[in-house]
Design a protein that fits this description.
Distance between the termini: 24 Å
Number of strands: 13
Largest sheet: 5 strands, mixed
Number of helices: 14
Strand content: 15-25%
Strand order of the largest sheet: 6-5-4-7-8
Shape: globular
Structural class: alpha/beta
Order of helices and strands: HEHHEEEEEHEHEHEEEHHHHEHHEHH
Length: 399
């Protein structure tokens, strides 16, 4: 039994600090581990040797700054994780290992009016197919991240009102999917997962404070503060789509008037162009036409950018993030939308906050949320469990 403050408990804590640093980054050199944990180079070297001998990490030769170094990542035998993203009309699944490598990925269309049971059944089958494709045993799955387009109640795990997947409101998708797959399932909304995906793999790398803005069928923001997703006590932080821009504006699905969403979401924007561009117009097509020089589409994209920029300015004044990452189809418009966003931020945000802010497009496109679901599992899994599991398996294999 370890006594708090004893040498053994301190050593155990240092082991977990190193494992946590590697788990969150995917792979690090020993020098990078020392910088991120505050441990001495000698301590890190000894701990890495112990973790390698115990089967928790793998060490491979690499180079850093022109010098030889050793890259440390979690063992491939430690398990795999699964990410699942449900959108307005798609289901996307990815399987990855603990070294942040995506091993298999696929997507298929779904019916927006399908029930939660139907959708989760589809996900269960796709997960089984992709895990089989990796050649890794199903019992190596140690956790699943699930993204849904709506607010998740932190206490009950139920999905709040969503106009995007109406048949899912009031369900507990995490509990149901966990029962189907037999592993822990961590659930979050799509904007939060987009933020996590870009933070770990994309345009948010290196930023401790950022906002990921997704403009699609709805408008949401994933907020990262101090390197962690901020959800708020009820799990509804980041509902930027319901900032009021015009008290006399259109009635929003939330019941208020003139919300940001009513000026920027696809279902409000597309009708402006459908009389001249046809009823089958999509936001992806609007962006494509805008890039080709269509004046009407360019005007609408610029207007959307200015409105989004007003919401971003409010975030700047409240939270002072260092970076805003724009996701969804709108990000493909590049400077056609980013320029107007920056213009509004410059006009409405506190000058000092505006000067510190970078506004960039997401790098991951439609994959941001499913990769964020993988990152969610990696961030939520317990280091102690991971450490004990890998070393126990190594011990059994060595016996």
């Amino acid at each position: 039994m370890e006594t708090p403050g004893s040498q053994s408990s301190l050593h155990r804590a240092n082991l977990e600090r190193v494992v946590r640093a590697v788990r969150m980054a995917g792979s690090l050199t020993q020098a990078e581990i020392a910088r991120s944990t505050g441990l001495s180079a000698a301590t890190v070297s000894n701990i890495v040797r112990e973790l390698k001998d115990g089967g928790t990490v793998e060490v491979t030769p690499t180079s850093a700054g022109g010098r030889r170094a050793r890259s440390v990542s979690l063992s491939g035998d430690a398990g795999i994780v699964v990410g699942i993203d449900f959108g307005h009309s798609h289901l996307r699944v990815a399987v990855g290992n603990l070294a942040h490598q995506v091993l298999a990925e696929d997507a298929e269309p779904i019916d927006v009016d399908a029930s939660a049971a139907e959708g989760l059944g589809r996900a269960e089958r796709l997960v089984a197919r992709l895990v089989e494709a990796t050649g890794i045993a199903p019992d190596k799955v140690i956790g699943v991240g699930l993204g849904v387009p709506g607010p998740i109640d932190v206490e009950s795990g139920t999905l709040g009102s969503t106009a995007i997947l109406p048949g899912w409101t009031g369900t507990n998708p995490g509990a149901e999917l966990s029962g189907r797959l037999g592993v822990p399932v961590h659930v979050d909304n799509d904007a939060n997962l987009g933020a996590l995906g870009e933070l770990v793999w994309g345009s948010g790398r290196g930023a401790a404070d950022l906002a990921y803005i997704k403009v699609a069928s709805g408008v949401g923001a994933g907020l990262v503060i101090g390197g962690r997703i901020y959800r708020g006590p009820g799990g509804t932080a980041g509902e930027i789509g319901h900032i009021t821009l015009d008290e006399s504006g259109p009635v929003c699905r939330c019941g208020n008037r003139g919300c940001l969403e009513t000026f920027t979401a696809a279902r409000y924007v597309l009708p402006l162009l459908q009389p001249s561009h046809g009823p089958d117009l999509t936001m992806a097509r609007v962006v494509e036409l805008a890039r080709e020089g269509d004046p009407g589409c360019r005007r609408v994209i610029a207007d959307v950018g200015r409105h989004v920029g007003s919401g971003v300015a409010n975030l700047c004044n409240l939270l002072n993030p260092s970076r805003v990452v724009l996701g969804g189809d709108l990000a493909e418009a590049g400077e056609l939308v980013l320029g107007p966003i920056r213009e509004s931020v410059s006009r409405y945000a506190i000058p000092s906050a505006a000067r510190q802010l970078g506004v960039v497009p997401g790098m991951l496109g439609g994959r941001a949320e499913v990769l964020g679901a993988l990152a969610l599992v990696l961030s939520e899994m317990g280091d102690a469990t991971l450490l004990d599991g890998a070393q126990a398996a190594h011990g059994a294999a060595s016996a």
